[in-house]
Design a protein that fits this description.
Blueprint: H1 15-39, H2 46-58, H3 75-88, H4 93-114, H5 116-127, H6 130-136, H7 142-165, H8 173-192, H9 200-211, H10 215-229, H11 231-237, H12 246-262, H13 265-270, H14 283-289, H15 296-299, H16 308-311, H17 318-329, H18 331-345, H19 379-391, H20 393-399, H21 402-418, H22 420-445, H23 452-474
């Protein structure tokens, strides 16, 4: 006799979805191998080079000067790169492990939300999009954030599916184990690779309380999140490097921005930060150099006019004190400055900066035994792709505007939810939009500037949300099976 609990509607994953997810793994492996042939040992920026120096120091290199290492970056990726150096003698494998996880997690999410056929069809343009694949193989933490956020989204979609279908839904042991592993690894990555990943955790905790049953499993999930939240501070405490107040570098940008929009000499004099300037520079010089794109013009542009030791002092920080006092005294001017920053974050100033990674690695790290020069057998292809990206840079910047993707995701979701036939299948898209907002929203609270890589993880989720809404609208008989008890 046929077991009624083994019917298709009682399976958390259909056979077609399992097959499609297996195909995604094959595609991800092939895509990663091709990228390795072109770009080995990965694309590198100044941030990537600095993190590589940190990894070299952790791997035991004694020629690294103390001034070259600090807790500027969260420690997770640095530790992974250091382990790669110790075991394999190269950091090259790290970005390609990242690339595989990016492709696999994004593909799985597309299959779960848009259906096997549409999901596989829409994976190709995602993986061939230059802003995606150049960041996926870069020595940066943002590709890891893409993979972690997409993996968490897979878990959330499956939790929602089981919640709607009820307790009769079969969840194989292997799938439970895979979801627990994805949840754990993704939380560790989000909390130890980038500082802003912490804003996802309250939303994730709320979704677990809403969707996960029985209660002991929900409590276990919350406990896992709580334990991961303490991991990054513990790792930092065990690495004896100089501490830096990296948030203060964003605060000084906003502080000067407030003084700029106020355009009030008396206010500038009252809330000046001359003590943080390199003589003879003053706060007025900071205002003249300030722009709404990034704090780099204040912090890193030559000649320097800010004393980094004062700005990033880990205790009794002058910038924090002055910034808080200014915001408290003039909240209206603070809001005006914030609106200018939000315009930049939404791409409303005519493009999103640094939409792809250039193939021009820093050379100053080579004396320490690590070269980021392209060594892949197909590296000439990389030069051709880089030339194409340069010629089409403006088009790429406009194609990645956050405002467009956010607006399109919301419109498509609203249409899918407004139609009775597609409403039930559109809810996963709503969950993806929520997770995307929780990640990118961190930069609306405090940001060092606007770069595409900050938007990248949310961009991928919004792309899948749009695909999910389209899939819901195209599916006939869109209602999911009723809850069983």
């Amino acid at each position: 006799m046929t077991n009624p609990h083994d019917s298709p509607e009682n399976r958390l994953l259909s056979h077609a979805e399992v097959r499609a997810c297996a195909i995604v793994v094959v595609i991800a492996a092939a895509w990663t191998a091709i990228l390795a042939l072109i770009y080995w040992p990965g694309l590198c920026t100044e941030d990537g080079a600095t993190r590589t120096i940190h990894a070299i120091a952790l791997a035991g290199e004694r020629n690294i000067e103390p001034r070259m290492v600090s807790h500027w970056f969260p420690p997770g990726l640095t530790l992974l790169m250091s382990a790669s150096l110790r075991v394999l003698g190269d950091v090259g494998p790290v970005p390609f492990l990242q690339a595989f996880w990016v492709a696999a997690s994004a593909g799985w999410l597309l299959v779960l939300c848009a259906g096997p056929r549409l999901g596989l069809a829409l994976l190709a343009p995602l993986l061939l999009y230059p802003p995606i694949f150049t960041h996926a193989i870069a020595h940066l933490s943002d590709g890891w954030s893409v993979a972690a956020l997409a993996s968490l989204a897979c878990c959330v979609v499956l939790w929602h599916r089981r919640s709607v279908r009820g307790s009769a839904t079969q969840t194989p042991t292997w799938l439970r184990a895979a979801m627990m592993l994805l949840l754990l690894v993704s939380c560790v990555v989000l909390l130890t690779f980038r500082a802003n990943g912490v804003t996802v955790m309250p939303v994730l905790a709320g979704l677990i309380l809403w969707l996960v049953r029985p209660w002991p499993r929900a409590i276990a999930g919350l406990a896992m999140i709580g334990a991961c939240c303490f991991l990054s501070p513990t790792l930092v405490g065990n690495i004896p490097w100089a501490r830096r107040d990296t948030v203060a570098t964003s605060m000084v940008w906003e502080h000067v921005g407030i003084l700029r929009v106020a355009n009030d000499p008396a206010l500038t004099k009252q809330f000046n930060i001359d003590e943080a300037c390199m003589p003879p520079a003053t706060t007025q010089d900071l205002i003249q150099r300030h722009n709404w794109i990034t704090h780099d013009s204040l912090m890193w542009q030559r000649p320097g006019i800010l004393n980094h030791g004062v700005v990033m002092r880990p205790d009794q920080n002058l910038i924090r004190d002055r910034f808080k006092a200014l915001v408290k005294a003039h909240p209206g001017q603070y809001l005006r400055a914030k609106l200018e920053i939000w315009r930049t974050l939404l791409g409303l100033r005519g493009g999103i900066p640094l939409v792809y990674i250039f193939q021009h690695p820093p050379t100053w790290i080579e004396p320490f035994g690590v070269s980021m020069q392209p060594r892949g057998p197909l590296r000439e292809w990389g030069k051709a792709i880089d030339d194409w990206n340069r010629r089409n840079q403006m088009r790429l910047e406009y194609s990645a505007l956050p405002a467009i993707w956010i607006g399109l995701a919301i419109v498509m979701l609203a249409i899918a939810l407004s139609r009775r036939a597609s409403r039930a299948r559109a809810w996963p898209a709503a969950l993806l939009v929520l997770l995307a907002a929780s990640y990118y929203g961190a930069f609306f609270l405090m940001a060092p500037g606007a770069q595409y890589r900050y938007f990248l993880p949310s961009h991928v989720l919004l792309y899948v949300a749009i695909a999910a809404s389209i899939g819901a609208l195209l599916t006939r008989g869109g209602a999911v099976p009723a809850r069983r008890t």
